[in-house]
Amino acid sequence: MSRTHTIAAVVGLAIALGGPALLVSPAHRLLGEPDRLTTRVVEQFALWLLLAVILGIVVLWERQPLSSIGVQPLRWQSLTWGAALAAALLWGVVPALAWALRSAGIAGFESGIAMIAALPVWFRVFAVVTAGVTEEALFRGYAVERLALLIGSYWLAGAISLAVFALVHLPLWGLGPVLTFVVTGGILTAFFIWRQDLLANIVAHVIVDGMGLVVMPLLSRTG
Fold it and tell me: Which residues span the domain enclosing 103?
C-alpha cells in the first residue's frame, strides 16, 4: 500500500470502528437524553453519516471502487445467500445459543428486546435496516478489508473487527447477548471473508434483526 492509502485506511478504520464505539459511550449524551425517541433517531442518522464518510474516503481519498469493500452489482445470488445464511442463524445457531445461555444461567435477550419492543414499529424497522446496512458496511465491508490490507491476514482482521462489533453491543444488551453476537458475528465475518459479498451480509443481518425486533414482538402481541 502507498503512504496515502495507508493513512486513508487508518483514518477510515478509526471512523468505522471508533464511530460506533463513541455512540455507545458516555459521549452519546451529546446527542440528547438517551431515552428520548428523538435521540434514538439521531443516533440512527449518525450511523448513516459514518457510513457516508467511509464511502467518501473509499471513493475520494483512497480512489478505490466500492467493490474493494465488498459492494457487488445487484444479483439474485446475493439475495439467496443472504436468505440462506439468515435461515441458518435463525433456526439453527441462535436457538442453540439461547439454550446454552439458559443452561448456564446467563441472562439472554429478554430485557433488551422488551425495551426495544416498547418503541414504535416504524422506528424498529428503521433501526433494523440501519443496523443491517451500516454495521455490515462498517465492521465487515470496510474494517475487515482495510485491516487485512494493513496487517496481511483476513482472519486476524476479522477477529479484530468482530471484537469491536461485539463490545459496542455490550452497553445495550449485556454479557449474554454479547456472547451470542461473538458467535453470530463471527459467522457473518467468516461468510464475508469467504464470499466478499456485502449485500448478502446485509440481507442476512436485516432478516435476523427484523425477526427478533419487529416480527416476533408483533406476533407475541397478537398471539
Answer: 3-222
Tell me the C-alpha distance between 74 and 181, whole Å.
27
- Evaluate if pTM is beyond 0.85: yes
C-beta of residue 4 within 8 angstroms of C-beta of residue 60: no
Give residue for cell 459521549.
Answer: 27
Q: What angle separates helix 198-210 from helix 121-130, to the nearest 10 degrees?
A: 150
Q: How far apart are CA 161 and CA 131, in angstroms?
A: 15
- Contact (Cβ atoms closer than 8 angstroms) between residue 173 and residue 181: yes
Query: CB atoms < 10 A from the CB of 171, how many?
Result: 13
Please give the Cα distance from 199 to 132 (Å, whole number).
10
153-191 pLDDT, tens digit each: 999 999 999 999 999 999 889 999 999 999 999 999 999
Closest CA to 132 of 212, 23, 209, 53: 209
Q: How far apart are CA 162 and CA 24, in angstroms?
A: 16
Q: Nearest-CA neighbor of 187 among 105, 92, 115, 119?
A: 92
**What is the C-alpha separation between 206 and 135, in angstroms, rounded?**
10
Amino acid 14 reads A
Q: Tell me how many domains the chain contains.
A: 1
**pLDDT tens for each residue of 44-101:** 999 999 999 999 999 999 999 999 999 999 999 999 999 999 999 999 999 999 999 9
